[in-house]
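Support case: user asked for a sample of complex input and structure output to validate their parser. Sending the pair below.
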Amino acid sequence: MPPPPEYFCTGNIAKGFKLKNMSQSVFYHAGCPVCVSAEHDIVNLIGAANVEVVHLGEDKARIAEAEAAGVQSVPALLTPNGHVLHINFGAAMADVKA
Amino acid sequence: MPPPPEYFCTGNIAKGFKLKNMSQSVFYHAGCPVCVSAEHDIVNLIGAANVEVVHLGEDKARIAEAEAAGVQSVPALLTPNGHVLHINFGAAMADVKA
């Protein structure tokens, strides 16, 4: 069978993209006491369904993603519109990576 | 007419207390660009009805209240349970008071 013409969508264009709730915020932390307290406050304020919690100490694969988003210290909240709110101060990203 | 017995509530016990929505947070700021950006993010995240916005530069009478709550810099969010989330860094309270 010949390949489909180029204007046909062969169905794998979106391969590699992860489905994500675009209205969700991401809370990055490293398990420190300042982080845990801020996490409780943020979840209480905006609701658990609206925030993905990422522990960078346990999930080091996501450190690069956090840094690319502008996270300089933890705890930090990445809002749905791409702003980073650095909340109090738990640890610098350099310490999280160490 | 004799005064009412002491077990009567004469209706002014709550005088001087301001009615307040206890589930409301308070966002303290000083009008700086960092503050304005964070204010928009916080209002978007938790809803305008759930946060009282206080401009300490225009309402200096509330600086003492903010400091008593633990606010050290602005912008800061005082949560309903009394925690202070210092968000990014706009200005120190010393500069707000100046």
